[in-house]
Amino acid sequence: MRVDLGDDEQPEISLIALIDCIFFLLMFFMVATSFKHQADGQPLKELPITLPDAAVSLDKASAAPDVVVIGVDAKGGVYWGRERVSQAVLRERLHAVATQNPNQAVRIDGDTRAAYQEIVHLMDLCQFEGLTRIAMRTRDGR
Question: Class of the 68-136 domain?
Fold first, then answer.
């Protein structure tokens, strides 16, 4: 026996929800494809910045004679004056200088192609040993 429950409703497709989904997908693809890429199609891997030169730099004659000079070459090699040293020797020398004079000035001469991380590491090492008067040598921008 069949039970009649009234009019059978036909299922409806909600067009408003469908339009919302399509609009959302359209906006997603518009935003996702608008990022800049290099000319060869590869995404940018670094910031396209040019570091500035200093407007005024100190001459060797006007620089203080008792400044500790630490150099970094393009490959990350560290120099105490003109002598190449290891990280352990550098730390020992910085510790000895800091115990003698905590106000000792330190100048870091970094190659323009040296990794920024190497310079930051030297600055951290100087500050760890108690030397806070740290300067960086620059080129004269003229």
Answer: alpha beta
Q: Domain ranges in the chain? A: 68-136
Summarize the confidence of residues 91-108 as an average pLDDT.
90
Query: Phi first, then psi: what are they for 15, rounded to 5°?
Result: -75, -30
Do the beta carbons of residue 59 and residue 99 sit within 8 Å?
Answer: no
The 3-state DSSP class for residue 118 equals: helix
Nearest by Cα to 96 from 131, 58, 63:
131
The 10 Å Cβ neighbour count of residue 134 is 15
Contact 106, 70 (CB under 8 A): yes
Q: Where are the alpha helices (DSSP H) in the chain?
A: 15-32, 87-100, 116-128
Contacts of 73 (CB under 8 A, 6+ apart): 79, 111, 114
DSSP letter at 136 equals: E
Q: What are phi and psi of 19, to 5 degrees?
A: -65, -40
Tell which wins on pLDDT, 75 or 50: 75
The first and second tokens of residue 109, run together, are 């001469």
Please give the pLDDT value at position 91. 92
Q: Does this model's pTM top 0.90?
A: no
